[in-house]
Structures are given as structure tokens and as C-alpha cells.
Design brief:
This protein is mainly alpha-helical. 55% of the residues lie in helices and 4% in strands.
Amino acid sequence: MPDKKLYSRQEFEELRLNAAREMVKDGKLITDALDIKVRAGRYYWVHQTTWFGEPVLQLPQDMFAIQEVVFKTRPRFIVELGVAWGGSLLFY
């Protein structure tokens, strides 16, 4: 459990990156996370996400990751193929 220390932005980024590096090494966590995704898929978990009321066939964590890539790379264009209902198109 993290302590209740108030971190500077630099300390927070170091904590976050170190935690991510350690998390990748946790084989049981990765197995458990995959199991949850597979089990939840039986209940159409991915279909529960919406953006401005429109269905998005992606998980929220994936959307945030893509948003970070877009923010950091600043592409001139984003081309989305296979649009179902347009929720992710609105998001981007």
C-alpha cells in the first residue's frame, strides 16, 4: 500500500514508472488480468463503454493509452478503419 506522502511531479513519475516496470514482472497478475478479460468477454464487457452516448468497442484503458500516443505524437491525421457506431471516432 502506498504511503500518504505528497509527491513532487518528478517523484510521482518515478514512482509510476517503477511500479509499471514491476507490474510487468508479475506473471500471476498478468495471468489473472487475462483471465478477467476472457471471463468478462462472455458478458460483452467491451460493449459497455460509450463516449457521448455512442458505443465504443474498446476498453477505457486502451482508449486512454491511445489518447496518450495521440497527445505525444500530435499526428496531422487520424484514420480509423472499421467504425461501428462512431463512439471512438468522437473520442479521437
